[in-house]
Amino acid sequence: MRGAWSMGILAAGLLAAVPAHARKFSKPDPELVMLVQQAEADKSDFTDKYDAEVWLTDMSLRLAPLVPDPDQRLKLLRLI
User: Fold this and answer.
1) How far apart are CA 79 and CA 72, in angstroms?
2) Residue 1's pLDDT band (boundaries 50, 70, 90)?
3) Full-prediction pTM beyond 0.90?
4) What does the DSSP 8-state code read for residue 45?
5) Residues 31, 36: Cα–Cα separation, whole Å
6) Of residues 62, 57, 51, the one with CA closest to residue 74
7) Which of 21, 57, 68, 76 has the greatest count of CB atoms below 10 A from its CB?
């Protein structure tokens, strides 16, 4: 009985801590947002279209176990 009560207190404490922790990260840093947007807009990473396609294909295959949908994988990889 004592173990169940302790587990209940522990679970309640963890559940109460999650929203407090989540609120801390609710608003992203504006400078970081700006840098990510600039990086997304910069398409100069690959000077050769063939190199870009090879990289996308290779990375897509590596990411397949984690992201099964091919369209989602390519969308994600184009952001990187």
Assistant:
1) 11
2) very low
3) no
4) S
5) 9
6) 57
7) 76
In the numeric block, which tokens belong to residue 29?
């840093």
Neighbours of 50 (CB within 10 A): 8
In Å, what is the CA distance from 9 to each residue of 1, 15, 17, 18, 22?
Answer: 13, 10, 12, 15, 20
DSSP-derived letter for residue 25 is T
How far apart (Å, rounded) are the C-alpha atoms in residues 39 and 32? 11
SS3 19: helix
Among residues 54, 29, 42, 30, the alpha carbon closest in space to that of 79 is found at 42
Distance CA 13, CA 24 (A): 17
Residue 79: both structure tokens together: 């952001």
What confidence tens digit (pLDDT) does each residue in 25-57 have? 567 788 878 877 777 776 667 788 888 889 899
